[in-house]
Design goal:
The structure holds two protein chains of two kinds. Chain A contains eleven helices and two strands; from the N terminus they run αααββαααααααα. Chain A is an all-alpha fold. Chain A has one domain. A two-stranded antiparallel ribbon of chain A has the order 1-2. By secondary structure, chain B is α/β, with parallel strands linked by helices. Chain B folds into two domains: 220 residues, Rossmann fold (3-Layer(aba) Sandwich); 68 residues. Chain B has a six-stranded mixed sheet with strand order 6-7-8-3-9-10, sandwiched between helices. In chain B, strands 11, 12, 13, 14 and 15 form a five-stranded antiparallel sheet that branches. The chains are: A mainly alpha, B alpha/beta. Chain A: Keywords: Cell inner membrane, Cell membrane, Membrane, Nodulation, Transmembrane, Transmembrane helix, Transport. Chain A: Its main location: membrane. Chain A: This is Transport permease protein.
């Protein structure tokens, strides 16, 4: 709607997002194998490359093998990437290039449902890829499988949060090139300070404090103990931070998208 | 398509399929739609004719509830828009200006996925696919990928997609722009067919022949205003002289060598109440062409074309001859 005030009205969600989600799922199903392999290859290569390479220099981190330490980081990292890529590149295609959203909104489906469908779809896709990684690391005996199934809802939640953050960028993007800034200025630095590759205790105090504000840090604080067969601490806090990022970013993304498309 | 299996449903509701009153839409300081009134009659084909930037697409977007009007009242399928636009769109089929078929899907998948957006169940949609594909002349293309279709086929599939919910009202935004003549004729023929079967059609175009062929009623739009409205014949009769003589070629009658422009400057006013020179052609609008034709036949070098006035003459009279970019 035209005024900025109405762009900020609360999201109007309904089950009508389901047929839109199914549309994206049908596209994915046609390309499922390359898609899963693509999303799997990058983290698995990192995991084994760094895990064994750095594992030679650093035999143990916090009492576990380096590769087992790294496994939780890679699961979260790949979840973040899978969700981000989906809403940024594929989402932008559907919104701007292919006019898929426009076609859907000519039917009795509102923009809120379309954006919500993108959010849930990206998290679903992250879950599909994340499950494949869990399978690989479990099969190689890199992790303790006692609590491994708890990772599935966690991956979905982390996927939602990063999908929502990515949708903010998609709403603002003039072209695909714009997304490079998001990766180089936000995703990559966050990956380096959130405990993916090394414990955040290694960081200087200021950086460490900054790291605790980032959603990826909280995802890893939950995923790492679970994959080492332990129950995490401060579960409610970590979940609230991740969910808070997701909810706030979704609202922002929706307001910006309304302003862009309903003008 | 079988005559006893209509692709659209003529609703029993007495309300106008679309009624618009005092519609205005402003972007910053520019008023793109500056007061439009429109009342579609059930079963008619109404055409919004206007140059690029006249406000046709914005009017449609407002009518569908895809953007809020700055002022005015809209009722679509009897429901207030934008308040209940989503429900109203259940009864409407839309062919957008830009191709928006799903490139990853086959023809049939495009129809299935689109039908789901209307809450239709799988069996209902699947049952409709053969007739929709037949209507679009795409019987053999059920499992063809979109990339394998020609431009005309894609448009026809988009038309079939717009019929998946059996709409009361079909809205088409420049449906034949970019198509070759054969493909355009086929689209027109399909629209005529729907119109005969009782579907209300609203279409925008900047092609005169399209409007003249399809419209029961039309409105000419420019700068966000409706300049005239009525049946093509009535609009032509009301707005312009019945005969047009186009004069072009070389003319030596003025002493020096010149063209139709020089001739018009000297003589046109004597024969035509109204004339215009555009490029190297003089357009003379007359009630009775005989005196002018007699004069022209005596002018060596000049060539001319005598024809009845058409919609394009009205359009150019009302919207001017300047380029619209």
């Amino acid at each position: 709607m035209p005024t900025s005030a109405s762009s900020w009205r609360a999201p109007q969600l309904s089950r009508r997002f389901i047929p839109v989600w199914r549309r994206n799922f049908l596209v994915w199903r046609k390309l499922a194998l390359p898609s899963v392999l693509g999303n799997l290859a990058d983290p698995v290569i990192y995991l084994f490359g760094l895990g064994f390479g750095i594992g030679m220099l650093v035999p143990e981190v916090g009492g576990v093998r380096y590769i087992s330490f790294l496994a939780a980081g890679m699961v979260c990292y790949s979840t973040m990437n899978a969700a981000s890529f989906e809403v940024l590149y594929s989402g932008f295609s559907r919104m701007h290039v292919q006019k898929t959203w426009e076609a859907i909104m000519n039917a009795p489906i509102d923009l809120d449902d379309v954006v919500f469908a993108e959010l849930v779809w990206a998290a679903s896709k992250a879950l599909l890829s994340g499950a494949a990684i869990l399978l690989v690391i479990s099969a190689f005996g890199l992790v303790d499988t006692r609590y491994v199934l708890w990772l599935l809802p966690l991956i979905f939640l982390v996927g939602l949060a990063f999908a929502a953050l990515g949708l903010v960028m998609t709403a603002l993007a003039p072209s695909y090139d714009f997304f490079m800034y998001y990766f180089t200025l936000f995703i990559t630095p966050m990956t380096l300070v959130s405990g993916v590759f090394f414990p955040i205790e290694q960081l200087p105090p200021a950086l460490r404090a900054a790291a605790t504000l980032l959603p990826l840090t909280h995802a890893i604080e939950l995923a790492r103990p679970l994959l080492l067969g332990r129950l995490p601490e401060h579960v409610a806090l970590h979940l609230s931070v991740i969910a808070g990022y997701g909810a706030a970013a979704f609202w922002l993304a929706l307001a910006l998208t309304r302003r862009r498309l309903l003008k | 398509m079988q005559a006893d299996r209509p692709l659209t449903l003529a609703s029993r509701s007495p309300a106008s399929p679309l009624s618009i009153r005092g519609l205005r839409k402003r972007y910053g300081d520019t008023e793109v739609v500056a007061g439009i009134d429109l009342e579609l009659r059930r079963g008619e084909c109404f055409t919004l004719l206007g140059p690029n930037g006249a406000g046709k697409t914005t009017t449609l977007r407002c009518a569908l509830g895809l953007t809020a009007p700055s002022a005015g009242e809209i009722r679509l399928a009897g429901l207030p828009v934008p308040a209940r636009a989503r429900e109203a769109r259940m009864r409407v089929g839309i062919v957008p200006q830009q191709d928006s078929l799903d490139p990853d899907f086959t023809c049939a998948e495009n129809l299935i996925v689109y039908g789901r957006y209307f809450g239709l169940d799988e069996a209902t949609i699947r049952a409709r696919i053969p007739e929709l594909l037949a209507f679009a002349g795409l019987e053999g293309k059920r499992d063809a990928r979109i990339q394998a279709l020609s431009g005309g086929m894609k448009r026809r599939l988009t038309l079939a997609r717009a019929l998946v919910n059996r709409p009361d009202l079909l809205i088409l935004d420049e449906p034949t722009t970019g198509l070759d003549p054969q493909a355009r004729h086929l689209i027109w023929e399909r629209l005529k067919h729907l119109s005969r079967a009782g579907t209300t059609i609203l279409l925008t175009t900047h092609f005169m022949d399209e409007a003249e062929r399809l419209a029961d009623r039309l409105a000419i739009l420019d700068a966000g205003r409706m300049l005239t409205e009525g049946s093509p014949r009535d609009v032509i009769a009301a707005q312009i002289e019945p005969q047009v003589v186009e004069v072009y070629g070389d003319w030596n009658g003025g002493g020096a060598a010149g063209g139709a422009e020089a001739w018009a400057a000297r003589h046109a006013a004597a024969f035509a109440r109204r004339f215009e020179v555009s490029g190297e052609t003089a357009f003379c609008y007359v009630e009775d062409a005989a005196p002018l034709l007699a004069h022209l036949s005596a002018q060596a070098g000049l060539r001319y074309l005598h024809r009845p006035a058409n919609l394009e003459d009205v359009f150019l009279k009302l919207t001017g001859r300047e380029l619209r970019d």
